[in-house]
Fold each of these.
Amino acid sequence: MKTILNLPKTGFTLVEIMIVVAVIGLLAAMAIPNFANARANAQARSCINNLIQIDDAAEQFALENGKKNGDAINYPSDLTPFIKLNAAHGIPGCPAGGSYSVSVVGTPPACSLGSTVSPAHVLP
């Protein structure tokens, strides 16, 4: 004859599962703003690096073509030979969607987002 053992029921209770879900939700609520902030900081640093490269290209253009402060620059065609181009064979754009402009030798280039975003997309 077979005997049936009384084994205790194992598993998680509803309260235990709810506590685990709440802890995971709390961790996600703390992490998501940090990820968004890190992304904004990375975009600003990349934009500033692009502005520095554009400024250097403008200085090289002016030096090679005998331009002086105040002379006009035809952006981007004048600077294309003096800067590393992206995969589309153009001057890299702002990663946050802004556009760059530089019109005169001696003035720093600017991003259209400028100080309207945080952190700002301006040269230091």
Amino acid sequence: MENEVWYDHFIKILFEKYPKRMELAQVLADLLHIENEAVYRRLRKEVSFSVHEVAKISLAWNISLDSIIGIGKEKIPFLMQPINYIIPSKQELKYLQCIIQSINSLKDFTDTEFMDVCNKLPRQFLAGYNYLNQFYLFKWLYEYGNEKQSVPFSKVVISEEQRRLTADYYKAIKNVPNTSFIFDHRLFDNLVCEILYFHSIQMITDSEKEFIKKDLNALLDYLLETATNGCYPETQNKVTLYISQFNINTNYSYTCTRQINVCFVHVFEKHEIYTYDVEIINKFKLWMQLKKNSSVQISEIDKRSRIEYFIKQRQIVDML
């Protein structure tokens, strides 16, 4: 890599994640189980991080080794973390717990910004409704579960540990100080059509359909309250809700904090690919902000559009 050995680049990436030297040293000391002074010697390049230490840091912080050693510099590295949400492994559970801990820490950084452009219900809302959450897991299993025989909705069993993590995530995500959502204008239409399809092939029973419908109505109540006040009811943290006038192909998002910037493309219903590349993150932010130009803000300022939108969504849900 031009004018920069890989180790210099690695140190640069570490400081991008934790710009304050003292904070970076403490986090690395905890991760590597070494003294702070030993970390400082490595940061000053008096000694080098071992190969084992580099690998451990890269794994814990999702740093691409390709980006460290400069392979394919003209290419942008994207990562993917597949997770089995029905029967997660110990490592997957630990990964989910780390995500929740990271989100909880965001409440201390008032300049944190999250934005999600959605063609399906985002996890920030989905996680709070048991039957809706189960439906998305059921749909994920149906499409990507590799089962010889499709599992009906009633047979999708969610462990108590997974339910707890989902509840913890739903609570933690409200700590993000500034959040924006842009919904596809057909988001609820598409969701209701999917539910009706599975009901028509007897994968969802009449009573289960009614439970999902009840969750959808409760979600609309919550969204209306959030949009009216412009904030999460639980924490009063700011939420801005837009409705896109154009179709949205997939969910994509970015999170920007003092510590870390990352953007995501959500794929295969429950997974996502992501990158910490500064250039692509800046492009993502620009593209997503421009999406507001073809969207209507229904939170706080436009009462008429807000009322019309929620009346229409209730009519759609009533089709169930």
Amino acid sequence: MGRRRKGSPVHGWVVLDKPQGVTSTQAVARVRKLFDAQKAGHAGTLDPLATGVLAIALGEATKTVPFVMEGEKLYRFTVRWGYATATDDAQGDVVERSDVRPTEAAIHAEIPAFTGEIMQVPPAFSAIKVAGVRAYDLARNGEAFTLEPRPTSIHSATLVDMPDSDHAVFEIACGKGSYIRAWVRDFAEALGTRAHVAMLRRLRTGAFTEDVAIGLEKLEALGHSPAALEHLLPIATALDGIPALAVTGSDLVRLRSGNPIMLRAPQLQRLAEDREFAVATDLQGLTVFLSTARGEPVALAEVAHGELRPFRVFNFSQAS
């Protein structure tokens, strides 16, 4: 018999408005402690300098983290022109200077080259591993290493404001694995100058937006109270846009045991309508969220050869 995991069987999402100066790992630990949750994780790191939406999964919600990670992120940030830093943000030492300050026209002209599918070299101070060691640890130790360019998707980039010649405010919507610090570094170089991120705030990650986020201090002030539980969102909140089906009877039993079930004609029709597909064969490989008639999560499954094959089964028992 396996060891019982410490903590309470708390399941759901907390959308935290992460404060500046706190790491994502520290924020997760504090939220986990507040809810006395057995396990916790987050859907995308925010640097200590950054603020905003940090989606934290508790309990069985951790099984839906990849779906939030794959979702679009929206950032608002301030660029300081003329100074490149070792970390590409305001926390690093200045390593290069430039007297060039780009005009609004020059910025608008260059933005198209930095949207869409682009190649990006991650910042030296990042969590990417090089021969098993985090890049930021190598950088702090002054060791030489090379990070290879990676493809990333910048869905949109907008110049929001230019408060003075030294600063510009942007908003970027991007995909998984995009580094705003790297975007600013490369964008400045294309404009013939240097720059770094002076301020960064995440406004959205996947289905989670800042209007439902709660500050860490405010959440901790609620303590272990019913008011704190009001900020625990259902697991299904993370699965916005994924078609859902209700299951009952023997299908429910089979799925909870990790076994596939037959995909019946009414279910095929429902999925086809949800996906606006003309024929059921187009559903091959589709991910489906399965729940009880009361909406309790059961499993995430894939459509394959006329079956629903579960690849994530939710287990709400107290034992782990």
Amino acid sequence: MAVTPTIDEAKLEAFMERFVGELGACATAPMVLIGDKLGLYRAMADSEPVTPTQLAERTGTNERYIREWLCQQAASDYVSYDAVDGTFRLPPEQALALAVEESPAFIPGAFQLLSAMIKDEPAITERFRSGDGFGWHEHHHDLFEGTERFFRPGYNAHLIAEWIPALEGVEERLHEGIRVADIGCGHGVSTILLAQAFPNSTFVGSDYHEGSIEAARRAAERAHVSDRVTFEVAGAKEFAGGPFDLICVFDALHDMGDPVGAAQHVRSQLADGGTWLVVEPMAADSVEDNLNAVGRVFYAGSTMLCTPASLSQEVGLALGAQAGQQRLTEVLNDGGFSHVRRAAETPFNLVLEVRP
């Protein structure tokens, strides 16, 4: 006979209260996407009070929809509400996070990425049953732009100011002029940032996803760095053109089916005395130490995106987004690199200096 567990009513009530908050957070996701796509946050970025009618006029939208949206945003504490005059205001702190795309706190890209995960849920559910992989290129197109917009604020804040200076001797060489490869570059945000900061160096970005490379080429033209930046369609075990003095892989090594093989190929393309910069999601080496707010986000992304991507490729090692430095070091050692040093970190990033 099955034993019915005893229910602690206080714990159940606490969990249900938490659930209501999380349900509200989930329901807010499409609200943020609407505000981002329609420019509603940008129209409130001056932090001045507006009525629904005024915001609708500014953005060419319908007042009745705007009124309901503003009320939801006020209930979420994304905007403030003045009951006396019936106006809504986007506080400057929220404006920095929701309206300023170049801000290090910009968050709508995360919601766009999340929307792609939700849209692809049926496909991933089926992979749970079959064990098959699901390639990056198979995802909804919101994933590609959402990923760029999600990672760009962190790269803007840290790549040039902190991560490059943390690598031994690399910043000086970049100023002098060296050859750099950016593997798994996606839309080319990291490649272009490096090119803008170091005009004497040349850069080659590569990614197996053709659509992302096309977007990267357009972005390089808009940034006026096409004379020093090229992008090519190539996998991590296929890119060529070395030797490179600096090779970078940003938040992509764990997505690869054969990261050991990729490391071996990087070794073959790295110049004598060269450096490999590996940036991965922040993670501890044990599961229990990753059971926190950051790990919660990264394990979800790993389940929906990273693990399926790796399983869709040869070998299918499936490191996952929470591999941790110890496991990553094992992979890099197996790929022919003996020097692996944590050069920098943020709450979201693990930055490794890798050399033979």
